[in-house]
Amino acid sequence: MNILIVHAHPESKSFTTALKDKAQCVFEEQGHSVEVSDLYAMNFNPIASQNDFANLNQPEYFNYALEQRHAYKQNSLAPDIQVEIEKIKRADLLIFSFPLYWTSVPAILKGWIDRVFVSGLFYGGKRFYNHGGMAGKKAMLCFTLGGRDYMFGENAIHGSIAEYLSPIQRGTLAYAGFEVLPPFIAYHVPYISNEDRQNILINFEAYLNDLQNLEPLTFPLIENFDEKMRPLP
Amino acid sequence: MNILIVHAHPESKSFTTALKDKAQCVFEEQGHSVEVSDLYAMNFNPIASQNDFANLNQPEYFNYALEQRHAYKQNSLAPDIQVEIEKIKRADLLIFSFPLYWTSVPAILKGWIDRVFVSGLFYGGKRFYNHGGMAGKKAMLCFTLGGRDYMFGENAIHGSIAEYLSPIQRGTLAYAGFEVLPPFIAYHVPYISNEDRQNILINFEAYLNDLQNLEPLTFPLIENFDEKMRPLP
Question: A43: domain range?
């Protein structure tokens, strides 16, 4: 397998970074090939803008998705976007590694998605969900957060963690065709002991060694909807 | 009322921008005072990093939230963050105006949240939800998207739109203490006629004129949870 880890933490000594390093190490021991896009280290630009295109197809009215579609065809996307696209094309498994910021990904990772998941390749027309451009590839989230696990769930104070992950797991990864594996979540990280952190790393290693047995999350199948994407009876 | 509109669209002729302009115009006609943070026009930096602090409290191990708390107290946050914080302090109503990118906000707006919603002011300790730092203020989303309205809902192809909004409405705005008004959503915008767009603007004006009668969304009350934030029986 080729694995791409997209990592978004500003501190190289962070526990989030330790999890990323652990994943890289475990995968390489298994004989897989690992690439890492360390967005802070790369000083990745997260702002979707006119600058992402060598030239504009419709300069009088800027539509980001339409320009993506045009530039992808013409091979005129900004070089930093093109490089990331090539990494994803090579990858069988995409991992997002990040600290949860405001129950979502940090802006630098959101911008990586906004700019790299281009219209025309990742989706377009009826190509989404199980027909999305990335069908056949897997993806998975690995993230850290400050809250305790019991604070999330149906009647818990913050509600279900799955709901906060919807934009990324369903609206982004599944929409683009990825098979989404259950996330690995490290709770309460800033407040736990070093021993507890070591235990999380041990659990993460076991999780990664069992990856091929994990049941992917379920999302809609295009076949269950009609031409206008209304549910079939 | 003082109103702050945080706007995140790269095209000044976009319909999202027309909605923002309409809101500004309606509020000013009502005698309110309106400030706009036009993030693309400001070239706002969305990356949370060490550069956000004049000096670091713990330079050997960078923890973003802890540095925010320290710098807010010391008045040593980066000037562009401080300016936005002052705007929010003045505001009675905060509006996010944006095109939905990957069922979420564009990275430039996510980064505005990551950097501006500082620990120690917006939240901290037991100050969240109805005890959050912004208690007493209102907030509301106004956004455009490509999908049709029937594509969202319980059994619809994309599921409930409310679920995608959870990270921003619940995990961010409600968490920080804002009373969250129901969002104004403009569907299918890139594909509709100019007449349909004019009708959306008319509906938006009626929506804004009725703002004081809108029932806010409901979120947990801290009083229903114990000291450790477990639900009370």
Answer: 2-224
Q: Distance from B190 to chain A by nearest Cα, in Å?
A: 9
Q: Is residue B119 part of a domain?
A: yes
Alpha carbon distance B110, B8 (integer Å): 10
Q: Number of folded domains in chain B?
A: 1
Provide the ipTM: 0.98
* Alpha carbon distance B161, A62 (integer Å): 26
With 0-12 CB in 10 A as exposed, 13-18 as middle and 19+ as buried, what is A155?
Answer: exposed
Phi-psi region of A32 (alpha: psi -120 to 50; beta: other; left: phi over 0): beta
3-state secondary structure of A91: coil
Q: Does position B125 have pLDDT exceeding 90, yes or no? A: no
A166 belongs to a structural domain: yes
Is residue B231 predicted with pLDDT exceeding 90? yes
Q: Residue A140: which CATH number?
A: 3.40.50.360
Residue B176 included in any domain: yes
pLDDT at A57: 97
The nearest CA of chain A is from the CA of B209 a distance in Å of 30
Mean pLDDT of A186-192: 95
Interchain contact, A229 vs B108, CB within 8 Å: no
Say which amino acid occupies A227: E
Count CB pairs under 8 A between chains A and B.
163
Residue contact A107–B102, C-beta within 8 A: no
Tell whether A230 is covered by a domain. Answer: no
